[in-house]
Design a protein that fits this description.
- By secondary structure, this protein is an alpha+beta fold.
- The chain has helices spanning 43-55, 61-64, 78-90, 113-124, 142-145; strands at 5-18, 22-24, 27-30, 33-35, 93-103, 131-136, 149-160.
- The protein contains 5 helices and 7 strands.
- Helix 1 runs parallel beside helix 3.
- The chain starts with a strand and ends with a strand.
- The protein binds magnesium ion.
- Magnesium ion is lined by residues 12, 14, 37, 43, 46.
Length: 162
Amino acid sequence: MKDDIRIGYGEDIHRLEKGGNLILSGIKVSEEIHAVAHSDGDAVYHALADALLGAIGQNDIGHFFPVDDSAYDNLDSARIVEKAKNLTKEAGFAVINADLTILLERPKLAPYVKEMKKKTAALLEIIEDRLSIKCGTYECIGPIGEGRAVKAIALVLLGKER
Ligand code: MG
């Protein structure tokens, strides 16, 4: 019984710069700013992948997708979540629920949450009721509040497949 469930935590932060597209939880939310990254810079999917990997006692995403490997430039971060999900499956676990938080000053993300949930729940192979995507600002405080960074936090619960 004690091995039936596992919890995982992940967080990620990316600097924001003008131009390009900002992708969060698989959805384009801005065409005026982008996250500085080797991949598509989706901080939500990076945090989520790390949470999945953490729950099964694995290495972090940098181990599987090294930043100095140019093969992963502009990588769709959904591929990173898929890799992590496949590892959880190989370990005999499935996602019970996931709780995600995005901290970003602008743009306001409320109009995108429905689309984010649909895409991300499908990626995790869970129904949308088992996924929360919450969005907040940093009240103009620090680099996130000044619009210079985006941060994401992910918690996942896994259950042993029977
Ligand atoms: Mg990242």
